[in-house]
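Continuing the batch. This is chain 6 of the set; chains 1 through 5 are on the previous pages. Same settings as before, nothing changed between runs. Recording input and output for traceability.
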Amino acid sequence: MRAFLFSFFFGSTVAMAQEAATSGANTQPSMFESMIPFLIILVLMYFLLIRPQVKKSKEHSNLLGSLQVGDEVVTSGGIIGRIKSISDAFIVLDLGSTTVKILKENITRLTHPKQEAPVSKVPAKEK
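Output for chain 6:
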C-alpha cells in the first residue's frame, strides 16, 4: 500500500528523474505539474477543516435563531437553565433560585430537543 501511495504522488517525479538520467537532458516539470501537490493540499484542507467549521457555525446560528422562552439550554460554561427572556444580544436564564443574564452566543445546545407531546391511545374498556 505504501509503495502504491508513493508511486501515486511521486511516480511522475521519479519517472522524470529516471528519464532525465538516461537521456542526459536536464528537463524541468511544467508549471502545472509543480502546482498539483499544492492544489491537492488545498482541496484536502477545505474538506477536512473549512467545510465542517462552516457547517457547525451555521447549525449554531440556526439554534440561536430558534430559541424560545421556556426552552432549557446549556451554556458554554456548563450552566443549565430555562430561558426567561430573550433580547438581541442577551438571554436571561432562570436557574431555579436565581436568574442570570448571559450573552446569546454562549448558548451551546438545548438540553432536550423539542418533541411533540406523545398521543396516548388508551383502549376502550370492554364490558
